[in-house]
Amino acid sequence: MRKYFIFAVLFILTAYCNSYSQDAQEIIKKVQSNYNGIKDAKASFSHSVKYSSGKSQSESGTIYIQKENKYRIETKGQIVLTDGVTSWSYSSKKKQVIIDNYKNDGNTFSPNKYLFSYPENFYSDLEGSEEVSGVDCYLLKLSPRSKGNVKSAKIWVDKNDYLIRKIHIVSSESTDTYLLKKISLDMGISSSKFTFSPPSDVEVIDLR
């Protein structure tokens, strides 16, 4: 679940950061304005990670989000989702699904929590501009106000639509890079996307 927490930072770190650089502050205000008004979102992503042990891996997938606490993350062989009441973690490889009550507390992963209400605990500075997949972006450096798992981060914000295109995160456990290939907002995603009916041939572990 840690890697999905990190993925959430894709949205989290830019949506609600303070800035002491006027240029960075204006950029973040525009990003903030975009995200404040949305009801749902979909994004495809690629993720590469290098752990402190030296091991590395990569994956790709799709994330769906709907206010207030609904999300669905699909990667190869795994689906993690919640409707805000119940959560499911399904592994097609293991033929297993774990069901639990959704717990909305400080230790619970929820991309919605960070997308829509992440506290302003990061300083931000504009480092310049770079292209990401042919898109001209602002490059911002983020530094946490207090000590924690995330040591530093860089984000790339599309200059035209002020959406996040890339993020690089250095934590105590790993260095993660995420690339957003497609971002769609307010698609009218059905609530049924955030519920799950286990296939008949899988093991069901119900922790409720």
CATH homologous superfamily title: Lipoprotein localisation LolA/LolB/LppX
CATH topology: outer membrane lipoprotein receptor (LolB), chain A
Indicate the low-confidence ranges by residue numbers.
12-21, 113-119
As a percent range, the share of helical residues equals 10-25%
Q: What would you call the shape?
A: globular
Describe the largest sheet. 12 strands, mixed
Q: By helix and strand content, what is the structural category?
A: alpha+beta
Share in β-strands: over 45%
In round numbers, the mean pLDDT is: 80
How many strands appear in the DSSP assignment?
A: 12
- Helices and strands, in order, run as HHEEEEEEHEEEEEE
- Tally of DSSP helical segments: 3
Instruction: Please write the CATH class name.
Output: Mainly Beta
Key descriptive features of the protein:
12 strands; 17% helix; outer membrane lipoprotein receptor (LolB), chain A; 48% strand; 208 residues; alpha+beta; globular
What does this structure look like?
The chain has helices at residues 2-15, 22-36, 111-117; strands at residues 40-51, 56-66, 70-75, 78-82, 86-91, 96-101, 122-132, 135-144, 150-158, 164-171, 174-185, 203-206. The protein has 208 residues and is of the alpha+beta class. It has one domain (2-206): Lipoprotein localisation LolA/LolB/LppX (outer membrane lipoprotein receptor (LolB), chain A, Clam). It has a twelve-stranded mixed β-sheet with strand order 7-8-9-10-11-1-2-3-4-5-6-12, covered by helices on one side. β8 and β9 form a beta hairpin.
